[in-house]
Amino acid sequence: MITFTAPMWVGILIGFIIGAAAEAWGIANPETLIRLAKWEDRLFVICIALGLAISTPVLFGLYALGVGFHFSPKPLYLVGVGLGGVLFGAGLAIAGYFPGSIWMALGEGRRDAIYALLGALLGAASWTALYQTSVGQWLVSTLNFGSLVIGGKHVSTFVIQPFQGLTPVDLFGISLVYAVGLFLVAYYLPRYKGGQRSCIRENLERRNTPVEVQKHLDTAIYLTDGGLPYSQTSLAKKVNEYYATESNVTRWFMVSIAGIVGLTVVLEMFLHQIFGESTTYSWIVGQLFMPSFKYSQIVFKGIGWEPFSDIGTLMGAFFSAVFITRRFTSFRNIIPPSWAHRFGTNEAVRFVGSFLGGYLMLFGARMAGGCASGHILSGDMQMALSGLEFTAAVFAAMIITAKVVYK
């Protein structure tokens, strides 16, 4: 088996690529995820589904050929993963952030990300305290079936052991079927509420409905709100005002980013580990305030290059926001439109929302053992059953919470 382990600092480069791509994607702006929670803009779903459809067969195809990856599907403990996903989804809908996008938003110069960061650190501390209690142990041990993937089980760093009667080639075949299902979601799910086409169909058919054109323009307005100026001939204009009928270099922009992110995670898994970002919060809390707690000791022992990749994520988002998209807001008080429409523009109210959402989101992530990066992106790429459960719980809670919060 061909294996390799890169030094820790390489995580900065991996984080930089993903941070820059995701900032251009719009993930650093909390309005993007709030609109996802309101089921008004499904770009995140489409791009994640397409990225997984591209990368999962690559991952398992190379594995069948004898390439070793640092697999790390999260354990499937049904109660803790499910409840953690519910809390994560609720927090995401309120704050508009997940663990990685907080670092991206800081790179984009968003003030409310500071409040979300503080809430997330408190959420990590709360789980660290709860973990060593009987309640915490019950959550992670009840109905714990280990690290299962579709068709097999993770038994060591480089080995996914197929179930009896199956081979790594069979896992590759399963990944192809899995990828087809995800591609159909990416192809047929309309990006916008009231629209008819996904990003892929817009690019292929080169036409939009009036609703879709207006939605694209509205998206450009909120993405650039408070950002740096740019000229009419700049790359920033093409990126920010992208839509499929525009014949320019950005026509396949969103689709390309999905592939870049997915394949970068495959590369990361070959070099060192899966892509995950919520562990850093527990590591920070443990180092600064709770070094003797049992959960902190587990984090210290198992931490990889997450702090490095999070630094890279912030740097990549900053680079993109200043030099590509021009969305850097210089930490001015920019309130997400959906939040302002429901609660007004008072900064203190937004502080409470960002803080509370960040707290619930990170508390849920650590309870479940992963987040949007470790469970949804990296976990679903490995066809991990825990990732699929977490994803379902997040989306259900996110949509229900958005209906209640934003009416």
Number of strands: 3
SSE class: mainly alpha
Helicity level, as a percent range? 55-70%
Mean pLDDT: 93
- Helices, by number, come to 19
Question: Rg, please?
Answer: 20 Å
Keywords: Cell inner membrane, Cell membrane, Membrane, Transmembrane, Transmembrane helix, Transport
InterPro entries: Sulf_transp_TsuA/YedE (IPR007272)
Membrane topology: Multi-pass membrane protein
Pfam family, one: Sulf_transp
Commentary on this structure:
It is a single chain. The protein has 407 residues and is mainly alpha-helical. The protein has one domain. 66% of the residues lie in helices and 3% in strands. It has helices spanning 10-25, 30-37, 43-64, 78-95, 99-107, 112-131, 134-141, 168-188, 199-205, 210-224, 235-240, 253-271, 279-288, 294-302, 306-323, 337-343, 347-368, 372-381, 385-406; strands spanning 148-149, 152-156, 159-162. Strands 1-2-3 form a three-stranded antiparallel beta sheet. A hairpin with a 2-residue loop joins strand 1 (148-149) and strand 2 (152-156). It is globular. Residues 243-250 have low confidence and may be disordered. It is a multi-pass membrane protein. The chain crosses the membrane at residues 6-22, 43-65, 77-106, 113-131, 171-189, 252-275, 311-328, 348-368, 388-406. Keywords: Cell inner membrane, Cell membrane, Membrane, Transmembrane, Transmembrane helix, Transport. Its main location: membrane.
